[in-house]
Amino acid sequence: MGLFNWLWEQHQFLMHQCFSLPFAFLFYFLVKWGYLSLTYRYLFVSVGGCVLAVVTMGVYSTLLFVSAFVFVLLLCSVDSSCIHAWVFGMQMLWQTFWHLFIQYRENDLHEPVSIRLFLAVSSLMLLTQRITSVSMDVQEKKVTLKPKASHRRSACVTPLPLISYIFSFTTLLGGPLCSYGRFVSHMEGLTLNPPPSPLGVVFLKLTQVLLLELVKYCLVCFLKLYMYDPYSSAVLSGILWLWSLGLVLRIQYYSHWRISECLSNAAGFGFWGSSLGDTPDWSGLSDGDFWTTEASTRVSEFARRWNATTASWLRRLVYVRCKCFPLFMTFGFSLWWHGLHFGHFVGFLTWAATVKADYYIHKYLQPKLSSTWRKLLNTCLCWINTQMIITCIVIAVELRDISSLRLLCVTYIGLFPLCNIILLLILIKLDTVC
Fold first, then answer.
1. pLDDT tens sequence across 118-131
2. Could you state, in order of their start, the residue ranges of all structural domains in the chain?
3. Which one, 20, 255, 269, 338, has the greatest CB density within 10 A?
4. Active site includes 338?
5. Does the active-site annotation cover 378?
């Protein structure tokens, strides 16, 4: 029953984001009414983030402050041509230390870990995204943080946009990753080309969050009512039970992403102009839509849609920079970034192998799908295969320890990724022979 208590405790993340919504609306309307200059906008966002960090994380908020201080220190002292290597190395060392500290407390000392520490480490992971994005921008000369001599008037406020970007209360606890250049241009353009009122879109997305939580509640009731017994339950019912558990775990992410989008939208972020019919398009910052992502018929397609801004960050940070085995290196870094638990090794390496298998299998099947009914049958089977594989990955990653592997084995759902990996090996062998 501890698993279900843990599932419900995750509402704390949603509540922290909801409590920040009034301040996001306040920021938007103060800017719209002309009460906040550019400097005060940056101050509002950064001070709000620092206060939110202290209130939600307590003493553990120092994890974020130390990380930001070291980053600014490196920007001032290291040449731009090698700044990214220094920032990446220092930030990942600091983050890994706290991930290993949590594992030490849980596994070796068998002590409960404070929810504030979990919040701080989760925010530190998001801080890693923003900091390394800036370091890559600086190294690639996409942004210039040091002012020129002819612009001395702005020299005193130059660090302010950076601190505001790092500690923005809209993205401190969660939210889609926004580039530093885009953040600055948005802050500067709020008065020049203000977005329309976000009240409607925020209400709509909050309704979607409530619906997702209702679906999750129904699924949790189903899981409690029909507890799976590996010794008396049928194979199909065990697979269905585990698929429902995986869906519950995924809905937590969809709810968290949606409420984070609400917070960004409430502050005026994410507006992309008007779409067809003059409907405001607020999809500029999004980590994934439930229907679009869950409708994916390929594992590789699901991987691109799942946590979309993080996937883009991983692609830029690792995939395009690695000359050897970029796919496995990307998923390998992802398991390092997530915390190096046993379940992370199983989950992310399985994901990498099944994505690779997905490319080979569809390359082999595509010429054979000539008729419409074959294509339809293939689509249905591929969707089921994707759902089963993603369920295995999510359960392994979320449960983190060896119990997840035992659960996947007794329900036989683990055969889905195993068969995909075996097919991958066979198709690689055939390619080598040909």
1. 899 999 999 999 99
2. 35-189
3. 269
4. yes
5. no
